[in-house]
């Protein structure tokens, strides 16, 4: 009898009370709260580094292409192919992709996934998706009542800014000075490295960015190949040669406005990374820009043709690029820190 009671007491002492179970569960919850964010942060850091490595590879390909073309950056499209197809041989893609390209015209191709054009941010991509676009400058676009952007006429440097029915040399130069890469019509208009260096500088001009807007790299459409800004966001001055950029809002063109937006209708830099958007500068360096970057600073980083862009005088007697006068604080070199 005594032995049975001892066994019962021994069994009871080896069980867990309700309070002890609650304490264990609380400890497990606290441990999970500490570990899970660390794991998620570690994964995000790895994805960010992987994205930057892919941008490095793109930078190498674009730079190699420019070196083969007297320093001129590749056009947005060439020979009925987008810039993304033009650099495929330099990205070390599979031979099967290159063979498929040679067999059919672009509009007859099935969508092909190229991992070198995808940002590894943890999401599943549709076939043919592209996560990187070039700096396509400013242009005339239409925004509907839902805030979606449409390209109603082909985006080139030929834009009639004053709506007089003609495109003057001044208007063409102003538009060309707002971006780096253009279609080759009517003349090759993409900037050369030496041109940018003699104006804003390669280290102050964005060349390429992440995006959530592009649907496919196998497209001739501007919004699948470039990020842009509509000239409706520009406030023009009293004189034809003067204007300044609005600092209030860039709407669907603003940094990261394409996140969660409808593909092909939010032509802006965009990313799912926590810290901001990875961009590549014309000198081959990359930075991560915050979503809340000042719109004026962002637009100045887009323009290779002069950071003033508010007090500008174009030399009418020569086809040279814009020259700037009336120095103000806007003319000073743009400083960036790692927080941007």
Count of distinct structural domains = 1
Tell me the distance between the termini.
Answer: 79 Å
Quaternary organisation of the protein chains: single chain
- Mean pLDDT score: 77
The dominant shape is globular
Secondary structure class reads alpha+beta
Number of strands: 13
Report on this model:
By secondary structure, the chain is of the alpha+beta class. The chain has one domain. It has helices at residues 2-13, 18-67, 83-86, 95-103, 169-176, 193-197, 222-225, 295-302; strands spanning 77-78, 81-82, 132-139, 142-143, 149-150, 206-210, 226-230, 234-236, 243-245, 277-281, 286-289, 312-313, 323-324. The strands form five sheets. Strands 7-3-6-10-11 form a five-stranded mixed beta sheet, sandwiched between helices. A two-stranded antiparallel sheet has the order 1-2. A hairpin with a 4-residue loop joins strand 10 and strand 11. The radius of gyration is 26 Å and the shape is globular. The termini are far apart. Mean pLDDT is 77; it is low at 307-340.
